[in-house]
Amino acid sequence: MWARPSAGYAAEQPAGLIRQRYHYVVSERSSMRYPIVTDEQVDAVIGIEDVIPKIERAMREHANGNLTAPPRLVIDAGAGSLVFTAGALTGQEPVAGFRVYETFPKDEPGHTQLVVSYDGESGVMQGIITGFRVGVIRTGAIGGVAVKHLAREGADTVAMIGSGTQARSQLVAANAVRDLEQVRVYSPTRGHRESFSEEMSKMLSLEVTAVESPRDAIEDADIVISATRSKTPVYDADLLEPGMHVTTLGPNLAGTNEIEIGVADRSDVIVTDSLAQLDSYGEYTKPYFLSETKHRERIRDLGDVIVGKRPGRESDEDITLFCSVGLAGTEVVVANEVFKNLAGQ
Amino acid sequence: MWARPSAGYAAEQPAGLIRQRYHYVVSERSSMRYPIVTDEQVDAVIGIEDVIPKIERAMREHANGNLTAPPRLVIDAGAGSLVFTAGALTGQEPVAGFRVYETFPKDEPGHTQLVVSYDGESGVMQGIITGFRVGVIRTGAIGGVAVKHLAREGADTVAMIGSGTQARSQLVAANAVRDLEQVRVYSPTRGHRESFSEEMSKMLSLEVTAVESPRDAIEDADIVISATRSKTPVYDADLLEPGMHVTTLGPNLAGTNEIEIGVADRSDVIVTDSLAQLDSYGEYTKPYFLSETKHRERIRDLGDVIVGKRPGRESDEDITLFCSVGLAGTEVVVANEVFKNLAGQ
After folding, report:
1. B110 to A80: CB separation less than 8 angstroms, yes or no
2. Could you confirm whether domain A139-323 is CATH 3.40.50.2000?
3. Domain B141-323: top CATH class
4. B42: nearest CA in chain A?
């Protein structure tokens, strides 16, 4: 359970040491202890592959109406905003909680997110997680669930566009749900793609090759994942071939989108983790890049595909597109796993 | 600064010891430390009297449009809800943050609230406070500001209806803004009112007498404060006399109200800390007990009274009524003081 290789990027220190380091906040008056957990400790107790089945269950609960996720609360604080996403699973293993992040300029150190979860039966707080790993792990796990349900059988080659933290966890997740053979990574900075290749091939015991262009990555791939910060399309939709699965994670608002609308034109099936959230983008910023296109009406929820309410891939020739928006409530599912694992020590 | 008598109910231990006991959560990856504070430590670093001027300033900023407090976010989690109130002060000393509490049945230990604040310029989290004291301190301080601005000059006698935690901090706050001579406390359980009398007379060096009826408390008082959990009126409006100031803190929804509408009928001026919040009760539960009465249109914000936009008391014969609803954003002001004081150690 501890610091398995794919779990984390922090595991330079023995897990035991990390374990000892997390804090409890103790109130003498209430005699309660609540664990306060950092990124290092999150990585010490869970890996993305542990989380994928839990996120898959959350998607099922979403489809069955047992996941509550109200619209986000945004509070304007002048130079930036605080943003709250909350969620509750009311099914088999009830849990509730929230994530809060802020949008201030990151000119100085110290910015952090919080994820807090509560036992869904008693309402007692399970603990507090500071840092960014829970968000990255859940986004990775969501991508893993999408690949599991949408990529064609036998898919074993990944084209990764992007080489940052999110790209890494997408790859870890894809590798957890499919028996990968080969990965080709492109990102514009040679040093970045080469570090990715070196580190990820070691971590996953896989052939991970840095390539010179999106074309070199995508040709003959089964799974094409873009996880960039680009506001302009990072590859040409014409590079896609029948049977491919495509995941897009980066900025995808109208006019600032990492993939072109042409990718949707080429896709037979378009799926998202939260159609409601996808639809709500326009309220805060610009609409999602597919919201005002003919494609909007055929986008379906991944949960509905998983439980069979809506079809997913129907043939090996289909191109499937997964638009990741970050289903609210899934952070809380990850936090629940963190606290269960800490308590099991 | 440390554990002054009126600061708190926790100060059984030397402040130094409490000081040492609070935790920092440390992320090695980001090299940041965030203080995690409990009720005991809150009481060790601030008292209600320190907070009153800060809350008064927040009320001014409210009146001047520099306090942002969006409607609360409520998430239904089956057996209970999570409730978020967030706020940001964008004026002279900007700070933002939120409080979250839950409404699950309190059948077992471990329930807690959180208050989290952020530097309003940089967006960096100042720290996390667990427990209930911040809420109690800010409600006390709001009551203090109301007494300061609404009670008649020379008011020195308090009738307290209720003997719990909120009643105690209302009295500490009233004592901080007025030169009190005498306090009479009534609550239905003899033991409770006698403990209140004993403890508060010691804490405040004041004559605090437990009395047998609301009438015995209210007759000849200058300030009448009710802080109960009663869902039916706890005193007769006919007991009020010209010149009195009245504060009500307890449940005050239509049909479950600790004071009768007759109190409003008797009042010349009705003030609240947040008219917007008072108006919003109906969205979640029942409307505020005055919302659907003729009184609604004359209720005014305390901030507007403080800055002179709206009149408050106009004569020594006026009866003034303060309806405390808990202006959102004021918890964050208290948290800001806590973290400033901790940092100043």
Report:
1. no
2. no
3. alpha beta
4. A27
The DSSP code for B71 is P
**Dihedral in degrees, nearest 10, Cα atoms B317, B318, B324, B330:** -90
Superfamily name with CATH number, domain B5-135+330-343 = ornithine cyclodeaminase, domain 1 (3.30.1780.10)
In 3-state terms, what secondary structure has residue A274? coil
pLDDT in tens, A64-78: 999 988 878 888 888
Cross-chain CB nearest to A23 (options B23, B79, B110): B23
C-alpha span between A131 and A66 (Å, rounded): 28
Residue (of B339, B342, B345) closest to B95 by Cα position: B339
Chain B neighbors of A104, CB-CB under 8 A: 122-124
Strand partners, A101: A83
Nearest Cα of chain A lies from the Cα of B286 at a distance, in angstroms, of 21
On whether the CB atoms of residues B82 and A117 are closer than 8 A, the answer is no
Characterize the bridge pairing of strands A256-257 and A252-253.
Answer: antiparallel
φ and ψ of A273, to 5 deg:
-85, -20
Q: How many CA atoms lie within 13 A of A115 on its CB side?
A: 28
Distance (Å) of CA B28 to CA A11, A37, A45, A99, A158:
12, 12, 16, 21, 33
Close Cβ partners of A151 (under 8 Å, ≥ 6 residues apart):
A178, A222, A223, A245, A313, A320
Helix (H) or strand (E) holding B114: strand B114-119
Is the pTM higher than 0.90? The answer reads: no
Q: How many CB pairs under 8 A join A and B?
A: 213
Task: Give, as one character, the DSSP assignment of residue A238.
Answer: G
In this predicted model, what pLDDT tens digit does every residue of A14-71 receive, in sequence order?
444 444 445 566 555 555 678 888 888 899 899 999 999 999 999 999 999 999 888 7
- Among chain A residues, the shortest Cα distance to B91 is held by A78
Length of chain B: 345
Alpha carbon of B204: minimum distance to chain A alpha carbons (Å): 23
- In chain A, which residues have their Cβ closer than 8 Å to the Cβ of B10? 29
Collect all residues of chain B within an 8 Å Cβ-Cβ radius of residue A29.
10, 38-40, 131
The token pair at A293 is 């296109």
Q: What count of Cα atoms within 13 Å lies in the side-chain half-sphere of residue B301?
A: 21
Chain A residues within 8 A of B26 when measuring between CB atoms: 21, 23, 38
Interface test with A, best of B73, B107, B133 (most A CBs within 10 A): B73
Domain boundaries, chain A: 5-135+330-343, 139-323
